[in-house]
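Q: Here's a chain of 315 amino acids. Please give me its 3D structure as tokens.
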Amino acid sequence: MGLENLTSISEFFLLGLSEQPEQQEILFGLFLSMYLITVAGNLLIILAIITDAQLHTPMYFFLANLSLTDTGLVSTTVPNMLANIWIQNQVISYAGCLSQVYIFFLFGILEAFLLAVMAYDRYVAICHPLHYIMVMSPGLCVLLASASWIMSALLSLLYTLLMNSLSFCAEHEIPHFFCDINPLLRLSCTDPFINELVIFSIGSITVLVCVLCLIISYTHIFSTIWKIPSAQGKQKALSTCSSHLSVVSLYFGTSSCVYFSPPSTRSAPKGAVASVMYAVVTPMLNPFIYSLRNRDIKSSLRKLIWVRNICSPRW
């Protein structure tokens, strides 16, 4: 393609999930509801963990980080989408688009790392219970969480720099509700093969490391649970892992459909819908999964709500 067809664009147009005017109000109400539920649910879990001394353990320390990550992930995309629908303006600046790519992948990659770290925490708790407090020391917990944040920030920065190195044509409509890598690669006028190869390779290695950590941890966990003689003991051990396994399945299942599906099966509408599951629905469901299946969280939330009702003024 000739240089005359290339342009240094300053903005993109986010087409969203639908261009039909009659569907905009429905989408606005639906996504506003999901956003408020997600933020409220995750912040309640964080508040419960902070205020309840019984939850000051490694498992809940990582859960608080996960809830913060889910809040950040959904806040990166949904408020901008709601604002676009409200003011009927689909424009996002070039810098704003790349910033959204960076922040979105920061929280997206961080979630994968935290889920892997939480699997290791469950492995130590179930397979080496007598050494749990010594192994999962506060220092190690902070180190694992900090390493997850730093690695996520560096990988996300690399992805953003790779996207910034591309040239885009005058056609700059993104058939998506946020700036994601796949639709941006399709808009590139320059050959994105190297960028795509690097992104896919690093993404695959990151996912492989996390999945291997999950598989190895749960292989040892299930092996240990199998050796527990009583059915009650087995059920108790499994109950501490069920919430985590549900979140892992939901997160890796939906994200794999978005970023690791065969190119022949990808399309803009399917990609946008799949991204809703990965970027919006999953962060919304995580608080429900942990609160409904975890007696400690349910008990702490009840106490939190009860104290709030007692302390609130009555007129």
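Q: Can you summarize the key feature?
A: DSSP finds ten helices and three strands in the chain.
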